[in-house]
Amino acid sequence: MIRIVLPTHLRTLARVEGEVQLDVESPVTQRAVLDALEAHYPMLCGTIRDHVTQRRRAFVRFFACEQDLSHAALDAPLPDAVVTGAEPLLIVGAMAGG
Amino acid sequence: MSMVRVLVGTRKGAFILTSDAKRARWEVSGPLFGGWELYHLQGAPADPQRLYASQSSGWFGQQIQRSNDGGQTWAPVGNAFVYDGDPGTHQWYDGTPRPWEFKRIWHLEPSLTDPDTVYAGAEDAALFRSTDGGQTWQELPGLRRVQGHLWQPGAGGMCLHTIVLDPSHPSRIFLAISAAGTFRSDDAGQTWQPINRGLRSEGIPNPTAEVGHCVHRIAMHPSRPHVLFMQKHWDVMRSDDAGESWHEVSGDLPTDFGFPIAIHAHEPDTIYVVPITSDAYHYPPEGKLRVYRSRMGGTEWEALTRGLPQRDCYVNVLRDAMAVDTLDPCGVYFGTTGGQIYGSVDAGDSWTPIVRDLPPVLSVEAQTLP
Predict the structure, then answer these.
(1) Pair type for strands B75-76 and B13-20
(2) B265-288, pLDDT tens digit by residue?
(3) What's domain B34-319's superfamily in CATH?
(4) Cα B10 from chain centroid?
(5) Taking CB atoms and an 8 Å cutoff, what residues of chain A touch B57?
(6) Is the pTM above the cut of 0.80?
Protein backbone atom coordinates (compact mmCIF):
# COMPACT_ATOMS: atom_id res chain seq x y z
CA MET A 1 0.00 0.00 0.00
CA ILE A 2 1.46 3.33 -1.10
CA ARG A 3 0.84 6.31 1.19
CA ILE A 4 0.48 9.74 -0.41
CA VAL A 5 0.20 13.09 1.33
CA LEU A 6 -1.57 15.69 -0.77
CA PRO A 7 -1.43 19.45 -0.26
CA THR A 8 -4.44 21.05 1.43
CA HIS A 9 -6.18 22.30 -1.70
CA LEU A 10 -5.92 18.97 -3.46
CA ARG A 11 -7.27 17.11 -0.41
CA THR A 12 -10.25 19.46 -0.48
CA LEU A 13 -10.70 19.00 -4.19
CA ALA A 14 -10.52 15.21 -3.92
CA ARG A 15 -12.65 15.25 -0.78
CA VAL A 16 -10.20 13.22 1.26
CA GLU A 17 -8.86 13.72 4.75
CA GLY A 18 -5.39 12.74 5.85
CA GLU A 19 -3.25 10.47 3.72
CA VAL A 20 -4.39 8.73 0.57
CA GLN A 21 -3.52 5.03 0.40
CA LEU A 22 -3.40 3.23 -2.93
CA ASP A 23 -2.44 -0.17 -4.26
CA VAL A 24 0.13 0.31 -6.98
CA GLU A 25 1.54 -2.55 -8.99
CA SER A 26 5.29 -3.04 -9.12
CA PRO A 27 7.46 -1.38 -10.24
CA VAL A 28 6.36 1.52 -8.07
CA THR A 29 7.46 4.69 -9.84
CA GLN A 30 6.32 8.32 -9.84
CA ARG A 31 4.42 7.66 -13.03
CA ALA A 32 2.70 4.55 -11.64
CA VAL A 33 1.69 6.34 -8.45
CA LEU A 34 0.33 9.37 -10.31
CA ASP A 35 -1.53 7.12 -12.75
CA ALA A 36 -3.15 5.31 -9.84
CA LEU A 37 -3.90 8.53 -8.00
CA GLU A 38 -5.61 10.09 -11.03
CA ALA A 39 -7.53 6.89 -11.72
CA HIS A 40 -8.99 6.96 -8.21
CA TYR A 41 -9.45 10.71 -8.10
CA PRO A 42 -10.10 11.96 -11.65
CA MET A 43 -10.54 15.53 -10.41
CA LEU A 44 -6.80 15.55 -9.70
CA CYS A 45 -5.98 15.14 -13.40
CA GLY A 46 -4.12 18.22 -14.50
CA THR A 47 -3.47 19.49 -10.99
CA ILE A 48 -0.13 17.78 -10.36
CA ARG A 49 1.06 17.22 -13.91
CA ASP A 50 0.03 18.62 -17.27
CA HIS A 51 -2.78 16.81 -19.10
CA VAL A 52 -0.81 16.52 -22.32
CA THR A 53 2.90 16.71 -21.60
CA GLN A 54 2.61 14.85 -18.27
CA ARG A 55 5.24 17.22 -16.91
CA ARG A 56 5.06 18.13 -13.22
CA ARG A 57 3.47 21.52 -12.70
CA ALA A 58 6.02 24.19 -11.89
CA PHE A 59 4.88 24.84 -8.30
CA VAL A 60 4.51 21.19 -7.31
CA ARG A 61 7.33 19.12 -5.83
CA PHE A 62 7.70 15.50 -4.76
CA PHE A 63 9.50 14.48 -1.57
CA ALA A 64 10.02 11.18 0.28
CA CYS A 65 12.46 9.90 2.86
CA GLU A 66 13.88 13.40 3.21
CA GLN A 67 14.84 13.41 -0.46
CA ASP A 68 13.65 15.77 -3.18
CA LEU A 69 12.42 13.46 -5.92
CA SER A 70 11.01 16.23 -8.07
CA HIS A 71 13.64 15.86 -10.73
CA ALA A 72 13.96 12.07 -10.61
CA ALA A 73 13.03 10.13 -13.72
CA LEU A 74 9.31 9.41 -13.91
CA ASP A 75 9.99 5.71 -14.38
CA ALA A 76 12.66 5.40 -11.70
CA PRO A 77 11.67 3.17 -8.77
CA LEU A 78 10.62 5.09 -5.67
CA PRO A 79 12.54 4.44 -2.43
CA ASP A 80 11.89 1.09 -0.76
CA ALA A 81 10.38 2.82 2.28
CA VAL A 82 7.70 4.32 0.03
CA VAL A 83 7.10 1.00 -1.71
CA THR A 84 6.63 -0.79 1.62
CA GLY A 85 4.43 1.98 3.01
CA ALA A 86 6.88 2.85 5.78
CA GLU A 87 7.14 6.39 4.43
CA PRO A 88 4.65 8.49 2.45
CA LEU A 89 5.24 10.20 -0.85
CA LEU A 90 4.74 13.90 -0.19
CA ILE A 91 3.21 15.96 -2.98
CA VAL A 92 3.89 19.54 -1.99
CA GLY A 93 2.70 22.88 -3.28
CA ALA A 94 5.61 25.30 -3.31
CA MET A 95 5.56 28.06 -0.72
CA ALA A 96 5.47 30.86 -3.29
CA GLY A 97 3.38 33.88 -3.94
CA GLY A 98 1.28 35.76 -1.46
CA MET B 1 -42.06 36.12 -5.36
CA SER B 2 -38.97 36.68 -7.46
CA MET B 3 -35.53 36.55 -5.95
CA VAL B 4 -32.07 37.63 -7.00
CA ARG B 5 -28.93 35.55 -6.78
CA VAL B 6 -25.61 37.33 -7.27
CA LEU B 7 -22.64 35.12 -8.11
CA VAL B 8 -19.32 36.57 -7.00
CA GLY B 9 -15.88 35.32 -7.99
CA THR B 10 -12.90 36.52 -5.97
CA ARG B 11 -9.17 35.94 -5.65
CA LYS B 12 -9.78 33.56 -2.77
CA GLY B 13 -13.07 31.81 -3.45
CA ALA B 14 -16.65 32.29 -4.56
CA PHE B 15 -19.60 33.82 -2.74
CA ILE B 16 -23.33 33.70 -3.45
CA LEU B 17 -25.54 36.60 -2.36
CA THR B 18 -29.30 36.07 -2.31
CA SER B 19 -32.24 38.35 -1.64
CA ASP B 20 -35.93 38.57 -2.32
CA ALA B 21 -37.17 41.04 -4.92
CA LYS B 22 -36.98 43.95 -2.52
CA ARG B 23 -33.21 43.51 -2.49
CA ALA B 24 -33.00 45.12 0.94
CA ARG B 25 -31.65 42.18 2.98
CA TRP B 26 -29.02 39.86 1.61
CA GLU B 27 -27.78 36.48 2.68
CA VAL B 28 -24.09 35.93 1.96
CA SER B 29 -22.89 32.36 1.59
CA GLY B 30 -19.32 31.23 1.05
CA PRO B 31 -16.50 31.07 0.57
CA LEU B 32 -16.87 28.25 -1.89
CA PHE B 33 -13.61 26.74 -3.12
CA GLY B 34 -11.76 28.81 -0.53
CA GLY B 35 -8.22 29.78 -1.37
CA TRP B 36 -8.66 29.31 -5.12
CA GLU B 37 -9.13 32.07 -7.68
CA LEU B 38 -12.66 32.13 -9.04
CA TYR B 39 -12.42 34.08 -12.24
CA HIS B 40 -16.08 33.66 -13.14
CA LEU B 41 -19.35 32.00 -12.15
CA GLN B 42 -22.33 32.00 -14.45
CA GLY B 43 -25.81 30.50 -14.51
CA ALA B 44 -27.36 28.89 -17.57
CA PRO B 45 -30.23 30.95 -19.02
CA ALA B 46 -32.02 27.76 -20.02
CA ASP B 47 -31.83 26.36 -16.48
CA PRO B 48 -30.93 28.92 -13.82
CA GLN B 49 -30.19 26.19 -11.29
CA ARG B 50 -27.32 25.04 -13.49
CA LEU B 51 -24.23 27.02 -12.55
CA TYR B 52 -20.69 26.83 -13.84
CA ALA B 53 -17.60 28.15 -12.07
CA SER B 54 -14.03 28.62 -13.22
CA GLN B 55 -11.70 27.73 -10.36
CA SER B 56 -7.97 28.12 -10.85
CA SER B 57 -4.69 28.22 -9.04
CA GLY B 58 -1.16 29.08 -9.98
CA TRP B 59 -0.12 25.91 -8.20
CA PHE B 60 -2.69 23.37 -9.32
CA GLY B 61 -4.13 24.71 -12.56
CA GLN B 62 -7.68 24.84 -13.79
CA GLN B 63 -10.88 23.27 -12.51
CA ILE B 64 -14.43 23.74 -13.73
CA GLN B 65 -17.10 23.23 -11.09
CA ARG B 66 -20.75 22.61 -11.88
CA SER B 67 -23.85 22.88 -9.73
CA ASN B 68 -27.26 21.51 -10.67
CA ASP B 69 -29.06 23.01 -7.68
CA GLY B 70 -28.34 26.69 -7.75
CA GLY B 71 -25.06 26.47 -5.90
CA GLN B 72 -26.07 24.28 -2.97
CA THR B 73 -23.76 21.49 -4.11
CA TRP B 74 -20.95 21.43 -6.62
CA ALA B 75 -18.86 18.84 -8.40
CA PRO B 76 -15.75 19.20 -10.54
CA VAL B 77 -16.26 18.39 -14.21
CA GLY B 78 -13.73 18.30 -17.04
CA ASN B 79 -10.62 20.43 -16.90
CA ALA B 80 -8.68 19.29 -19.96
CA PHE B 81 -8.40 22.38 -22.14
CA VAL B 82 -6.16 21.21 -24.95
CA TYR B 83 -5.53 23.38 -27.97
CA ASP B 84 -6.50 21.85 -31.29
CA GLY B 85 -3.33 20.71 -33.05
CA ASP B 86 -0.14 22.68 -32.72
CA PRO B 87 -1.23 26.20 -31.81
CA GLY B 88 2.11 27.69 -32.86
CA THR B 89 3.12 31.04 -31.48
CA HIS B 90 1.68 34.43 -30.71
CA GLN B 91 3.70 37.54 -29.95
CA TRP B 92 5.12 38.21 -26.53
CA TYR B 93 5.15 41.72 -25.05
CA ASP B 94 8.42 42.47 -26.82
CA GLY B 95 7.21 41.20 -30.18
CA THR B 96 9.13 37.93 -30.06
CA PRO B 97 7.27 34.69 -30.83
CA ARG B 98 5.86 32.88 -27.82
CA PRO B 99 4.30 29.39 -27.82
CA TRP B 100 0.62 29.26 -26.97
CA GLU B 101 0.20 27.95 -23.40
CA PHE B 102 -3.05 27.35 -21.52
CA LYS B 103 -3.20 29.24 -18.23
CA ARG B 104 -6.81 29.59 -17.08
CA ILE B 105 -10.44 30.13 -18.02
CA TRP B 106 -11.52 33.74 -17.62
CA HIS B 107 -15.15 33.54 -18.64
CA LEU B 108 -17.90 30.94 -18.96
CA GLU B 109 -20.94 31.58 -21.13
CA PRO B 110 -23.67 28.94 -21.14
CA SER B 111 -25.84 28.59 -24.23
CA LEU B 112 -29.10 30.53 -24.26
CA THR B 113 -31.06 27.36 -25.00
CA ASP B 114 -29.15 24.32 -23.71
CA PRO B 115 -27.74 24.17 -20.17
CA ASP B 116 -25.28 21.45 -21.19
CA THR B 117 -23.65 23.63 -23.82
CA VAL B 118 -21.22 26.18 -22.46
CA TYR B 119 -18.43 28.29 -23.95
CA ALA B 120 -15.20 29.02 -22.12
CA GLY B 121 -12.77 31.85 -22.83
CA ALA B 122 -9.15 30.94 -22.16
CA GLU B 123 -5.80 32.55 -21.54
CA ASP B 124 -3.78 32.15 -23.78
CA ALA B 125 -6.68 33.29 -25.90
CA ALA B 126 -8.87 30.56 -27.31
CA LEU B 127 -12.52 29.62 -27.28
CA PHE B 128 -13.56 26.21 -25.98
CA ARG B 129 -17.01 24.63 -26.04
CA SER B 130 -18.56 21.80 -24.09
CA THR B 131 -21.81 20.14 -25.12
CA ASP B 132 -21.92 17.68 -22.23
CA GLY B 133 -22.24 19.93 -19.24
CA GLY B 134 -18.54 20.66 -18.95
CA GLN B 135 -17.29 17.07 -18.89
CA THR B 136 -15.28 17.49 -22.10
CA TRP B 137 -14.06 20.57 -23.93
CA GLN B 138 -13.18 21.14 -27.55
CA GLU B 139 -11.44 24.19 -28.92
CA LEU B 140 -13.00 26.14 -31.79
CA PRO B 141 -9.64 26.74 -33.48
CA GLY B 142 -10.91 28.90 -36.32
CA LEU B 143 -10.58 31.86 -34.01
CA ARG B 144 -6.80 31.57 -33.73
CA ARG B 145 -6.56 31.56 -37.52
CA VAL B 146 -7.56 35.23 -37.54
CA GLN B 147 -3.98 36.49 -37.35
CA GLY B 148 -3.42 34.74 -34.02
CA HIS B 149 0.31 34.79 -34.65
CA LEU B 150 0.14 38.60 -34.32
CA TRP B 151 -1.82 38.77 -31.08
CA GLN B 152 -0.05 40.09 -28.00
CA PRO B 153 -1.08 39.88 -24.34
CA GLY B 154 -2.43 42.84 -22.45
CA ALA B 155 -1.05 43.57 -19.01
CA GLY B 156 -3.46 41.04 -17.50
CA GLY B 157 -2.51 38.31 -19.94
CA MET B 158 -3.69 37.27 -23.39
CA CYS B 159 -7.16 36.43 -22.25
CA LEU B 160 -10.43 35.77 -24.01
CA HIS B 161 -12.59 37.53 -21.44
CA THR B 162 -15.93 38.33 -23.08
CA ILE B 163 -18.35 36.01 -24.88
CA VAL B 164 -21.71 37.41 -26.05
CA LEU B 165 -24.34 35.16 -27.65
CA ASP B 166 -26.88 36.71 -30.01
CA PRO B 167 -30.44 35.68 -29.07
CA SER B 168 -31.82 36.57 -32.49
CA HIS B 169 -29.15 34.79 -34.49
CA PRO B 170 -28.27 31.46 -32.81
CA SER B 171 -25.08 30.98 -34.81
CA ARG B 172 -23.69 34.42 -34.03
CA ILE B 173 -21.08 34.85 -31.29
CA PHE B 174 -19.18 37.99 -30.33
CA LEU B 175 -16.07 37.84 -28.22
CA ALA B 176 -13.23 40.04 -27.06
CA ILE B 177 -9.58 39.35 -26.34
CA SER B 178 -6.93 41.43 -24.60
CA ALA B 179 -5.06 42.65 -26.53
CA ALA B 180 -6.27 41.35 -29.87
CA GLY B 181 -9.66 43.00 -30.15
CA THR B 182 -13.21 41.98 -30.95
CA PHE B 183 -14.28 39.12 -33.18
CA ARG B 184 -17.55 37.77 -34.58
CA SER B 185 -18.61 34.38 -35.85
CA ASP B 186 -21.79 33.86 -37.84
CA ASP B 187 -21.44 30.09 -38.07
CA ALA B 188 -21.42 28.99 -34.42
CA GLY B 189 -17.71 29.51 -33.95
CA GLN B 190 -16.30 27.72 -36.97
CA THR B 191 -14.98 30.84 -38.70
CA TRP B 192 -14.36 34.35 -37.38
CA GLN B 193 -13.76 37.85 -38.55
CA PRO B 194 -12.15 40.71 -36.65
CA ILE B 195 -14.64 43.51 -36.06
CA ASN B 196 -12.44 46.40 -34.99
CA ARG B 197 -13.06 49.02 -37.67
CA GLY B 198 -13.30 52.43 -36.05
CA LEU B 199 -11.17 51.55 -33.04
CA ARG B 200 -8.11 53.68 -32.56
CA SER B 201 -5.42 52.62 -30.10
CA GLU B 202 -2.41 54.83 -29.58
CA GLY B 203 0.59 52.88 -28.48
CA ILE B 204 0.37 50.08 -31.02
CA PRO B 205 2.39 50.29 -34.24
CA ASN B 206 -0.69 50.88 -36.39
CA PRO B 207 -3.37 52.65 -34.30
CA THR B 208 -6.16 51.46 -36.61
CA ALA B 209 -4.88 47.92 -37.15
CA GLU B 210 -7.31 45.12 -37.93
CA VAL B 211 -6.23 43.29 -34.76
CA GLY B 212 -4.22 44.32 -31.72
CA HIS B 213 -6.67 46.51 -29.79
CA CYS B 214 -6.98 46.15 -26.04
CA VAL B 215 -10.72 45.72 -25.70
CA HIS B 216 -11.71 45.44 -22.05
CA ARG B 217 -15.35 44.44 -22.33
CA ILE B 218 -18.31 44.44 -24.70
CA ALA B 219 -22.02 44.38 -23.87
CA MET B 220 -25.22 43.80 -25.81
CA HIS B 221 -28.88 44.24 -24.91
CA PRO B 222 -30.86 41.15 -25.94
CA SER B 223 -33.66 43.23 -27.47
CA ARG B 224 -31.27 44.99 -29.83
CA PRO B 225 -28.47 42.55 -30.64
CA HIS B 226 -26.98 44.54 -33.52
CA VAL B 227 -26.00 47.33 -31.07
CA LEU B 228 -22.84 46.71 -29.08
CA PHE B 229 -21.13 48.82 -26.46
CA MET B 230 -17.45 48.54 -25.65
CA GLN B 231 -15.15 49.70 -22.89
CA LYS B 232 -11.77 49.75 -24.54
CA HIS B 233 -8.48 50.30 -22.72
CA TRP B 234 -9.10 53.93 -23.56
CA ASP B 235 -12.41 54.99 -25.15
CA VAL B 236 -16.01 53.92 -24.75
CA MET B 237 -17.27 52.79 -28.13
CA ARG B 238 -20.56 51.89 -29.79
CA SER B 239 -21.47 49.85 -32.85
CA ASP B 240 -24.89 49.97 -34.51
CA ASP B 241 -24.13 47.32 -37.11
CA ALA B 242 -23.10 44.21 -35.17
CA GLY B 243 -19.51 45.31 -34.93
CA GLU B 244 -18.93 46.18 -38.59
CA SER B 245 -17.96 49.67 -37.46
CA TRP B 246 -17.49 51.50 -34.17
CA HIS B 247 -17.69 55.12 -33.10
CA GLU B 248 -16.64 56.74 -29.88
CA VAL B 249 -19.25 57.68 -27.27
CA SER B 250 -16.91 58.64 -24.40
CA GLY B 251 -18.37 62.15 -24.56
CA ASP B 252 -18.09 64.02 -21.28
CA LEU B 253 -16.71 61.20 -19.11
CA PRO B 254 -13.98 62.41 -16.73
CA THR B 255 -11.75 59.66 -18.16
CA ASP B 256 -12.58 57.05 -20.74
CA PHE B 257 -10.28 54.39 -19.30
CA GLY B 258 -12.03 51.61 -17.44
CA PHE B 259 -12.93 47.97 -17.45
CA PRO B 260 -16.64 47.00 -17.16
CA ILE B 261 -19.60 48.18 -19.20
CA ALA B 262 -23.19 47.11 -18.53
CA ILE B 263 -26.63 47.81 -19.96
CA HIS B 264 -29.90 48.43 -18.11
CA ALA B 265 -32.20 45.39 -18.35
CA HIS B 266 -35.16 47.34 -19.74
CA GLU B 267 -33.63 50.41 -21.37
CA PRO B 268 -31.20 49.40 -24.11
CA ASP B 269 -29.78 52.92 -24.35
CA THR B 270 -29.00 53.17 -20.64
CA ILE B 271 -25.42 52.07 -20.07
CA TYR B 272 -23.01 52.07 -17.14
CA VAL B 273 -19.24 52.41 -16.88
CA VAL B 274 -16.80 53.00 -14.04
CA PRO B 275 -14.15 55.51 -15.13
CA ILE B 276 -10.66 54.79 -13.85
CA THR B 277 -7.93 57.40 -13.83
CA SER B 278 -5.62 55.75 -16.37
CA ASP B 279 -3.70 52.62 -17.21
CA ALA B 280 -0.91 53.92 -14.99
CA TYR B 281 -3.27 54.46 -12.04
CA HIS B 282 -5.79 51.68 -11.69
CA TYR B 283 -8.02 53.61 -9.31
CA PRO B 284 -10.82 56.15 -9.67
CA PRO B 285 -10.10 59.84 -10.30
CA GLU B 286 -9.86 62.03 -7.20
CA GLY B 287 -10.38 59.09 -4.87
CA LYS B 288 -14.11 59.14 -5.71
CA LEU B 289 -15.84 55.94 -6.71
CA ARG B 290 -18.37 56.98 -9.35
CA VAL B 291 -20.46 54.95 -11.72
CA TYR B 292 -21.34 56.90 -14.83
CA ARG B 293 -24.65 56.35 -16.57
CA SER B 294 -25.72 57.45 -20.00
CA ARG B 295 -29.41 57.30 -20.85
CA MET B 296 -28.84 57.99 -24.53
CA GLY B 297 -26.43 55.24 -25.49
CA GLY B 298 -23.31 57.22 -24.68
CA THR B 299 -21.83 60.67 -25.23
CA GLU B 300 -23.71 62.36 -22.38
CA TRP B 301 -23.02 60.88 -18.97
CA GLU B 302 -24.09 61.54 -15.39
CA ALA B 303 -22.11 60.64 -12.30
CA LEU B 304 -23.86 58.32 -9.86
CA THR B 305 -22.40 58.86 -6.42
CA ARG B 306 -25.09 58.44 -3.79
CA GLY B 307 -23.95 55.75 -1.37
CA LEU B 308 -20.52 55.35 -2.97
CA PRO B 309 -17.33 56.55 -1.23
CA GLN B 310 -16.45 60.05 -2.40
CA ARG B 311 -13.11 60.39 -0.70
CA ASP B 312 -10.01 58.28 -0.19
CA CYS B 313 -11.25 55.47 -2.41
CA TYR B 314 -8.62 53.74 -4.53
CA VAL B 315 -10.20 50.48 -5.59
CA ASN B 316 -10.67 49.21 -9.13
CA VAL B 317 -13.64 47.50 -10.74
CA LEU B 318 -12.57 44.68 -13.05
CA ARG B 319 -14.08 43.90 -16.43
CA ASP B 320 -16.37 41.04 -15.41
CA ALA B 321 -17.40 42.59 -12.10
CA MET B 322 -20.58 44.47 -13.06
CA ALA B 323 -24.03 43.02 -13.75
CA VAL B 324 -27.72 43.84 -13.76
CA ASP B 325 -30.81 41.94 -12.69
CA THR B 326 -34.05 42.00 -14.68
CA LEU B 327 -36.41 43.25 -11.98
CA ASP B 328 -38.20 46.57 -12.26
CA PRO B 329 -36.61 48.88 -11.24
CA CYS B 330 -33.45 47.36 -12.60
CA GLY B 331 -30.84 46.31 -10.06
CA VAL B 332 -27.19 47.05 -10.79
CA TYR B 333 -24.29 45.38 -8.96
CA PHE B 334 -20.53 45.70 -9.05
CA GLY B 335 -17.58 44.41 -7.08
CA THR B 336 -14.26 46.07 -6.32
CA THR B 337 -10.69 45.02 -5.84
CA GLY B 338 -11.21 46.13 -2.23
CA GLY B 339 -13.75 43.37 -1.69
CA GLN B 340 -16.93 45.44 -1.65
CA ILE B 341 -20.07 44.46 -3.52
CA TYR B 342 -22.27 47.49 -4.15
CA GLY B 343 -25.87 47.16 -5.25
CA SER B 344 -28.44 49.61 -6.54
CA VAL B 345 -32.15 48.83 -6.63
CA ASP B 346 -33.03 52.01 -8.52
CA ALA B 347 -31.01 51.64 -11.71
CA GLY B 348 -27.99 53.36 -10.23
CA ASP B 349 -29.53 56.40 -8.55
CA SER B 350 -28.29 55.18 -5.16
CA TRP B 351 -26.00 52.44 -3.94
CA THR B 352 -25.61 50.30 -0.86
CA PRO B 353 -22.76 47.98 0.05
CA ILE B 354 -24.14 44.44 0.22
CA VAL B 355 -20.90 43.11 1.68
CA ARG B 356 -17.73 45.04 2.37
CA ASP B 357 -14.80 42.80 3.10
CA LEU B 358 -14.51 40.01 0.57
CA PRO B 359 -11.23 39.19 -1.16
CA PRO B 360 -10.58 41.21 -4.33
CA VAL B 361 -13.59 40.73 -6.60
CA LEU B 362 -12.97 39.30 -10.06
CA SER B 363 -16.50 38.80 -11.33
CA VAL B 364 -20.14 39.54 -10.55
CA GLU B 365 -23.18 38.01 -12.25
CA ALA B 366 -26.82 38.49 -11.30
CA GLN B 367 -29.59 35.94 -11.76
CA THR B 368 -33.25 36.91 -11.47
CA LEU B 369 -35.20 33.85 -10.38
CA PRO B 370 -38.97 33.34 -10.49
Answers:
(1) unpaired
(2) 999 999 999 999 999 999 999 999
(3) YVTN repeat-like/Quinoprotein amine dehydrogenase (2.130.10.10)
(4) 14
(5) 9
(6) yes
